[in-house]
Amino acid sequence: MRKLETKTIIVASHNAGKIREIAELIGPFGFSARSAAELKFEEPDETGTTFEENAAIKALASATASGLPALSDDSGIVIDALDGAPGVYTANWAEREDGSRDFQMAMEKVEAALQERGATRPDQRSCRFVSVLCLAWPDGHTEIFRGEVEGRVAWPPRGTEGFGYDPIFQPQGYETTFGEMSSEEKHGWKPGDAEALSHRARAFKLFVETCLEA
Question: What is the reported pTM?
Answer without folding.
Answer: 0.90
